[in-house]
Every structure is written in structure tokens, then in C-alpha cells.
Amino acid sequence: MKLPVGARIIGVGAGLPASVVKNSDLTRLVDTSDEWITTRTGIKERRIALDTETTSGLAIEAARDALGFAGIEADTIDLIIVATSTPDDLYPSTACKVQGAIGAVHAAAFDLEAACTGIVYALAVAHQFIGSGTYKRVLVIGADIHSRFLDWEDRNTCILFGDGAGAFVLEADEEGETGILSTYLRADGTGAHLLSIPNTGSAYPHTGTTPPRAVERYLQMNGKAIYNFAVQRVPEAVKTACESAGITVEDVDFLVPHQANIRIIKSAAERLGMSPEQLVTNVDEMGNTSAASIPLALWQAIQRDQIKVPSTICLVGFGAGLTWASAIVRWTARDHRRIQKKTEHTKESTDKRETQEV
Ligand code: ACO
Structural domain boundaries of the chain? Predict the structure, then answer.
């Protein structure tokens, strides 16, 4: 359905813990090897939060970076949505903490939970708010610290995840054009048991008449089932989002998939007939950063000058719930800070030349 107002992404940003944990570091914790992790997942290293770092802290860093990219002030933001499964606390929301810290004084704020798919869900919600004319500027952040919910003695899971935050700034397109061409959201709750972090919510009675039990609060996953789910659903989501946008898969320049496992990404690309150059990946450096992974991958591809402007991009996520989602985006954003630097440099050179001529 075409919305009355167009929306485009004008900024992207990152917030990362400084600490890098390599595969070789993990061999001291569990019975694994760099070779096993690299060949089965594509992951070489990941960022892991220090005790002093928080989901909201990383989200705030990503938000500031994305605002800088867009060249806009926080007080012009109307809404902040943070996609996270690992908030600092059950409440207040991480989005409210971001709102307060960055001074987005006019913004409403809430969290959204759709696990690793959360960022695409949040983008779709932002698109709807802008498309209906309710808001002009929305900050969307994916932020997760999964390392706090991993069993560091379980080699099946602890090697997979990294921590981080990624952000997008969306704006109403005054020229009537649209940068978000389509979004597609799906869920299948019958697969809820396949990937979960149990005993972290109200289903586990911590107080009252029931005495506290010793329980595991660690991420639990049926890796094979999630793998099979992902390799089927990712191509389906890409094709459906293309159809809704009125384009074909051949029109997509870059695929930015959720960064869980390079084998999942390559298998999906093969099924879609996409070349390795069209894949945006940084799973080797970041591992699976859950809701942060899609903006972090795009952010890094922009740093590496992989993304041409303009280009047509497909974002596709999958994760616990089960959930999966995709979006087709016409990418036109350029880093405001780079443009400013270039302008200053050109001005400096011109001034120098003029002084020399005089
Ligand atoms: N090091 C060495 N050996 C290992 C390790 C490890 N880190 N982990 C598992 N193994 C062993 C297993 O114990 C098994 O041994 P066994 O045959 O003696 O039992 C063997 O390696 C093979 O294990 P498989 O499970 O068959 O390995 P597979 O090739 O399927 O890879 C993996 C496992 C990487 C987990 C894969 O299934 C996967 O990536 N699944 C998807 C996971 C995912 O994407 N999750 C996140 C979703 S997003 C979200 O919402 C959080």
C-alpha cells in the first residue's frame, strides 16, 4: 500500500564496545578452534561489552553517530524506537534513556522486541509513522548485549554472538519521493521454543510465595532448526519485498542480511542469484550482534566505500519469535561530515591558491 508521505534514510551510525575477542581467546573457555568457528560461521572476532558498558550506552553512541552522519540536531527528532532483546532493565525503556541522553526533547520513545529482526520491524513502524504524516523525523536503533545472557561454557552458542548498536535516521521526503520502497514483516510463534532466553521475565516468579529456584538465564538455541528456517525464509522475504516494491531481485544492488552466519548469507544469495560483490557482510568482525547487525553491516560497508549512491538495497532479518522481515530501500544518504570536510578542504585549497596568486 502506498503511503501518503515518502520516507528516506538520511543517517546511519554505530556504537561498539572497544574490547575485541578473537576466536583464539574463546579456545581458553570452551573446547573449540579458530578453524571450526571460521568454517562453520565465518566469524573471526567480535566486540564484547565490558561490565561498565550498557545497551543504552551503545545505543546512545550509535544515535549520536547517525545524527552526525545526517547533519541534524537531536531536538528535531519526533520519535525514537529502540529494537532490543537485552534492555538495561525491564523498564524504563532503552529508548527513553537515549531520548534523555541525546536531548531529543520533542521525541516520543519506546522499545520494540522482535529479537534479531527487531531493526527491520522498527524501520517499518517508523516508515508508517512518517508515511501517515504523523512524524517527520524518526531515530531507529538496534542495540543488544547478548554476552550477558550467554553460557560461556556452551560452545554451541557462546562463539556466535557479539555486542553493539546500530542506528538509522529516517526523514519525511518533502519532494514526495520515497526511499523506503516496501517493507514485509512475518512471524511464526509456533517456533518460539527454538530460540529463547528463558527465566528472564515474569514467567519466572522471583519473589512472593514461590521460593526462588536456581535457573539458567542463558540463551538456548536449536542451531540446526534456526539454520534451516533462515535459509528458507531469507530468500522468501527478499522476493516478497521486491514484489511489493514493484521491482525484481535483479534490480537490487546490495543485500544487507542479518549477520548470523556466513553460510546462511551465502546460501540465501545463491538461491537469489546474487553475486558475492552484492553481499554486505561484516560477520567476520562483529559476530551476530542481533538487532544491531543490519545497520552495523551497512555502516561498515559505507566506511569501506562499498555502497554506491544512489543504489537499491534490500535489508533482511530473521530471528527468535520466530520472526523474519525485509525492506527495500533506495539509498541516497551521504555522510554530512565527509561532505563538510571536503567543502572545507576545497575552500582551504582555493584560499591558498588565491593567496599565492596575490
Ligand atoms: N567448536 C567445536 N565444535 C563445535 C562447536 C564449537 N564452537 N559448536 C558445536 N560443535 C560441535 C557439535 O557439538 C557437533 O558435534 P557432534 O557431532 O559430536 O555432536 C558438531 O560440532 C557439529 O555441530 P552442528 O550443530 O552440526 O554444526 P552446524 O554446522 O550446524 O553449525 C551452528 C552450528 C553454527 C550453530 C549453525 O547451526 C548455525 O549457525 N545455526 C543458526 C544459528 C543462528 O543464526 N542463530 C541466531 C539467530 S538470530 C537471533 O534472533 C538471536
Answer: 6-203+210-339
Among protein residues, the one whose CA lies closest to atom 35 of ligand 1: 223
- What b/e string do you get for 48-67 counting C-beta neighbours within 10 Å, with b at 16 or more? bbeeebbbbbbbbbbbbbbb
Q: Which of 258, 261, 282, 314 is catalytic?
A: 258
Q: What is the pLDDT along the chain (358 residues), one digit of tens a residue?
A: 778 889 999 999 999 999 999 999 999 999 999 999 999 999 999 999 999 999 999 999 999 999 999 999 999 999 999 999 999 999 999 999 999 999 999 999 999 999 999 999 999 999 999 999 999 999 999 999 999 999 999 999 999 999 999 999 999 997 766 799 999 999 999 999 999 999 888 887 766 655 555 678 899 999 999 999 999 999 999 999 999 999 999 999 999 999 999 999 999 999 999 999 999 999 999 999 999 999 999 999 999 999 999 999 999 999 999 999 999 999 999 999 988 887 777 777 777 777 777 6
Residue in 16, 281, 32, 268 with CA at minimum distance from that of residue 157:
32
CA of 156 from ligand 1 middle (Å) equals 5
Our answer on whether the CB atom of 260 is closer than 6 Å to any ligand 1 atom is yes
**Is 242 considered catalytic here?**
no
Query: Of all atoms in ligand 1, which is nearest to the CA of residue 41?
Result: 34
Active-site residue, from 96, 116, 158, 242? 116
Query: Which SS3 state, helix, strand or coil, does residue 15 take?
Result: strand
CATH number of 6-203+210-339: 3.40.47.10
11 pairs with which residues across the strands?
A: 169
